[in-house]
Each structure stands twice: as structure tokens, then as C-alpha cells.
Amino acid sequence: MSPTRDQRATLGALVDVLLDKGVYLDLDLIITVADIPLIGVNLRATIAGMETLLEYGLMREWDERIRAEAHDDPARG
After folding, report:
1. Rounded to 5 degrees, what are φ and ψ at 25?
2. C-alpha span between 13 and 75 (Å, rounded)
3. d(Cα 52, Cα 40) in Å, to the nearest integer?
4. CA nearest to 27, candidates 44, 39, 10
5. Collapsed DSSP state (helix, strand, coil) of residue 77
6. What is the pLDDT of residue 71?
7. How many helices (H) and strands (E) does the chain have?
8. Is the whole model's pTM more than 0.85, yes or no?
9. What pLDDT is stored for residue 72 in this prediction?
10. Average pLDDT, the chain
11. Residue 48: exposed, middle, or buried by beta-carbon count in 10 A (0-12, 13-18, 19+)?
12. C-alpha 5, offset from chain centre
């Protein structure tokens, strides 16, 4: 697979795909100076709309807790 470039692509289209389909990042980054590793970063992140996350079973407990809190305190919304 090779990357392609679509000149018609917009930021709005990218956000729409991220919210609808989502993206999972698994990143290992090591910053070195003069071949000496100074900083290491291990990052795992999922970016998607809440409906997509819930569909895949992510953040379900958080969503249920927030909804229960909102139900118990109508002033919160």
C-alpha cells in the first residue's frame, strides 16, 4: 500500500472520518542527541467519536457513570 494525495481533501472531511471510523495510534518515540537516547515516549491512543468508541466497547463504564450522574442531578444537564 502506498500513500495517495487527494487535492480535494479538507480538514472537515478528516474530522468526519476520525469521528465516524476512528483511528488507533501505537507510537514509540525516542529522542536522541549525539546517539544518546534522552527521552522515550510510549503512546497508545484511540481517537473517535463517542458513538464509535461505545460501539467497540471502549469507555463504556465512563459513559454509564456520567449518564447516571446526570440522571441523579438534573441541574448538571
Report:
1. -110, 135
2. 35
3. 30
4. 44
5. coil
6. 83
7. 3, 2
8. no
9. 82
10. 87
11. buried
12. 23
C-alpha dihedral sign at 25, 57, 11, 16:
positive
Task: Decide if 10 contacts 32 (C-beta within 8 A).
Answer: no
Pick from 39, 1, 46: nearest CA to 23:
46
Residue type, 35: D
E-strand stretches of the chain: 23-33, 36-47
pLDDT tens readout for residues 6-16? 777 788 888 88
What grid cell was written down for 64? 454509564
Domain ranges of the chain: 11-76
The residue with cell 515516549 is 41
- Give the pLDDT confidence of 40-50 residue by residue, as tens digits: 999 999 889 98
Residues 23, 12, 52, 73, CA torsion sign: positive
Q: What percent of the chain has pLDDT over 90?
A: 34
